[in-house]
Amino acid sequence: MEQLLCCAGRMSLLAFDHHFTLEFMALNTRMPLALLPAFRKELAEASAAFESRDLRASWRHLERAHILCQPYPVAHAWVHWKMLVFGFQTKNARKYAGSSHGCFSVG
């Protein structure tokens, strides 16, 4: 009987004809410096659009920030939080229901 080692990192288990291979995936905790300005720009533009009550543009910028940060769990959770706040502030149940799920299940 094969024994599988468990570790604290992320892993995926691939089974090929009774042979097991563990592949470890890096946990991207920091966004690359080259991507950070675009991410911050989208968040700033989302805030500016919200303050000017252009809700469609604000949400669009949050979605763009979300796309940029998906591989980075900390930033990803932050954008889901911003989307959740957006949903509460606009009283849009559909938006904050989806965002609250993302706040607790990023990765």
Biggest β-sheet description: 2 strands, antiparallel
Would you count the extended β strands for me?
A: 2
What's the N-to-C terminus distance?
32 Å
Q: Give the % helix.
A: 55-70%
Radius of gyration: 18 Å
SS content category: alpha+beta
Q: How many distinct helices? A: 4
Beta-strand fraction estimate: 5-15%
Q: Which geometry do the CA atoms define?
A: globular
Q: Overall pLDDT, averaged?
A: 76
* Strands ordered across the widest β-sheet: 1-2
Which regions are unreliable across 5 or more consecutive residues at pLDDT < 50? Answer: 1-22
Query: How do the helices and strands follow one another from N- to C-terminus?
Result: EEHHHH
Task: Describe the model.
- The structure is a single chain.
- The protein contains 4 helices and 2 strands.
- Helix 1 runs antiparallel to helix 2, helix 2 packs antiparallel against helix 3 (73-90) and helix 3 (73-90) runs antiparallel to helix 4.
- It has a domain at 36-104.
- It has a two-stranded antiparallel ribbon.
- A hairpin with a 2-residue loop joins strand 1 (10-16) and strand 2 (19-25).
- Mean pLDDT is 76; it is low at 1-22.
- By secondary structure, it is an alpha+beta fold.
Short description:
The protein is an alpha+beta fold and 107 residues long.
Please give the structural blueprint.
Elements: E1 10-16, E2 19-25, H1 36-51, H2 55-69, H3 73-90, H4 93-104
Antiparallel strand pairs: 1-2
Helix pairs in contact: 1-2, 2-3, 3-4
